[in-house]
Design goal:
By secondary structure, the chain is α+β, with helices and mostly antiparallel strands. It contains eleven helices and eight strands. A hairpin with a 2-residue loop joins strand 2 and strand 3 (108-113).
Length: 326
């Protein structure tokens, strides 16, 4: 109890020291948020209390029988009570609602029990491992992993998985938790090595599916079910980020110019039709000149539009010719 209190105090003190050292960058702030909160884990106090109660009840029952038979508490009665209590405590057990217990008899796999109450034969049988069958979130990462175009990237991801067959998880692999962690990291490196940096950055969903398929293929016989893989963050070298930014800007500028050119062609056709109405082939160019001047004045925020004399005279002459023809 005192140890846990000191641990909590030390964590609070560490957190206050980190907060006093502000400001932080984005990575330090994210790390602080991830480590400052300590989730409450499931407790096995109920199962422990049950074992203690069984131990005390068995010992008390033997002592009561000894007193009833001999009228006093003898050394043999005490030893018998202690032996009975140990046998009872090692025979009666409780598995929590999300647990499976693999029981061996004389070193051989006998059965898988749980959740709830179960009994074992003292000395001959024992529960070798308790398997948690809830969904487990395992973070993993790959640092400076080379892509198919030889670009080093850092990737953080999270694996969601669960044990559905406790027998295979106990018999087929020594430490299934460590094996899944190493397998996830290796699969991440292989998936990144098959893709270019652009594919890694833009096609996260496909990368998630590739990593999940690789892990499932290797862990098929371990009694483990891979639920999903989520890539959290992809860090590209700063120099390459600048180059990719310039490339994206160039693509957008090219698209913008193509859009402007297309609009210019449509506008030219409309102005040509307007020139036919005025009866002057040069009127289209003069109209375009006026539109460009209007756009320039509108962009500058001025309310005064100055029309060149030559342009206005040209329009006047066109209108007079059209009137004379009528």
């Amino acid at each position: 109890m005192f140890g846990s209190t000191r641990s909590k105090r030390s964590k609070r003190a560490l957190r206050s020291e980190r907060e006093a050292a502000a400001p932080w960058n984005d990575n330090e702030a994210e790390m602080l948020a991830a480590t400052s909160y300590v989730p409450r884990k499931s407790s096995r106090n109920g199962a422990l209390v049950f074992s203690v109660a069984v131990f005390l009840a068995a010992g008390a029952a033997v002592l009561a029988c000894g007193i009833a038979l001999e009228g006093r508490i003898s050394l043999a009665c005490i030893l018998g009570a202690l032996a009975a209590a140990l046998v009872a405590a090692s025979s009666l057990h409780i598995a929590l609602g999300w647990e499976k217990v693999v029981v061996l008899r004389l070193g051989k796999l006998n059965r898988v029990v749980g959740p709830g109450f179960y009994a074992t034969i003292p000395i001959l049988e024992y529960g070798t491992i308790r398997v948690d069958q809830r969904t487990i979130a395992t973070p993993f990462r790959a640092e400076r992993t080379l892509t198919a175009d030889l670009v080093p990237v850092n990737i953080d991801a999270v694996l969601f998985w669960m044990v559905w067959d406790a027998e295979k998880a106990c018999v087929e692999v020594e430490d299934y938790y460590a094996a899944i962690s190493y397998l996830a990291q290796t699969s991440l490196r292989e998936a990144v090595g098959r893709s270019t940096v652009a594919e890694v950055a833009l096609r996260r969903d496909q990368l998630d599916e590739e990593i999940k398929a690789d892990i499932e293929k290797e862990a098929a016989g371990w009694g483990v079910d891979i639920i999903s893989v989520k890539v959290r963050d992809i860090v590209i070298p700063a120099d390459l980020q600048h180059v990719m930014s310039l490339e994206a800007q160039a693509d957008r500028e090219r698209n913008a110019r193509m859009t402007v050119a297309s609009a210019e062609a449509d506008l030219a056709e409309m102005l040509a039709e307007a020139a036919q109405v005025y009866g002057d082939a040069d009127a289209a160019l003069k109209l375009r000149t006026m539109l460009m001047q209007y756009e320039t004045v509108r962009g500058s925020g001025s309310a005064v539009v100055t029309v060149p004399t030559a342009v206005s005279d040209g329009f006047a002459e066109g209108v007079q010719r059209q009137g004379g023809g009528l």
